[in-house]
Amino acid sequence: MRFISRIFEKIILYNQQSTYSKFRKKYTISPSFRFNGNNILFYSNGEIICGENSYIGEYSTIQATQGCKVEIGKGCMISHNVRMYTSTAVADQNFAILPHKEKFGNIIIGDYVWIGANVLINPGITIGNNSVIGANSVVTKEVLENTIVGGVPAKLIRYKNSNAD
């Protein structure tokens, strides 16, 4: 039974590595960028740029619609089950009327940003350098650098201590 389990694990690992290799060919991803875990999805025909020494956790998704981009800076820590979308339906509309209105926008994540688990980042968001997005947050507005935000929607919790080591 252990033998079969190990073979199954190796097949899953091979498939995962193959998928992440395809992402590296399609998008601009630093060789030091890490895919930490299973079921990470990058998709659509936009631009995805991932900086050096950054990582993204398992079950995370990045969607870059054609004409839009998602840019992740260097040294970023993106936890599990994080969602980033460059397009979404506009909520304030009558969905019985077609076509539906959509909102589009780039997502720019600065350097050394920490994004907690289960975070949703909406289209058109910029997150400043050295910021923290608390777990289970929905980011609907710009996040200034050196800040800690959290909640639904994400709001300023406090500014980071500039004297911290």
Describe this structure in words.
This protein has 1 helix and 19 strands. It is α/β, with parallel strands linked by helices and 165 residues long. The chain has one helix at residues 2-26, and strands spanning 28-29, 34-36, 41-43, 47-50, 55-57, 61-63, 69-72, 77-78, 83-85, 87-89, 102-104, 107-109, 114-115, 120-121, 126-127, 132-133, 138-139, 147-150, 155-159. It has a single domain (2-159), classed as 3 Solenoid (UDP N-Acetylglucosamine Acyltransferase, domain 1). The strands form 4 sheets. Strands 2-5-8-13-16-18-19 form a 7-stranded mixed sheet, with no helix packed on it. Strands 1-4-7-12-15 form a 5-stranded parallel sheet, with helices on one face. The chain has a 5-stranded parallel sheet with strand order 3-6-9-14-17, with no helix packed on it. A hairpin with a 4-residue loop joins β18 and β19. It is globular and about 50 Å long.
Give me the CATH fold name: UDP N-Acetylglucosamine Acyltransferase, domain 1
Unreliable parts: none
Please give the number of β-strands: 19
Q: Please identify, by name, the CATH architecture.
A: 3 Solenoid
User: Which percent band covers the strand fraction?
Assistant: 25-35%
* CATH class assignment: Mainly Beta
Query: Biggest β-sheet, characterized?
Result: 7 strands, mixed
Number of helices: 1
> How do the strands line up in the largest sheet?
2-5-8-13-16-18-19
Mean pLDDT, nearest integer? Answer: 93
Helix vs. strand class:
alpha/beta
CATH superfamily: Hexapeptide repeat proteins
N-to-C terminal Cα separation, in Å?
A: 49 Å
The portion of residues assigned to helices is 10-25%
N to C succession of SSEs: HEEEEEEEEEEEEEEEEEEE
What shape does the CA trace take?
Answer: globular
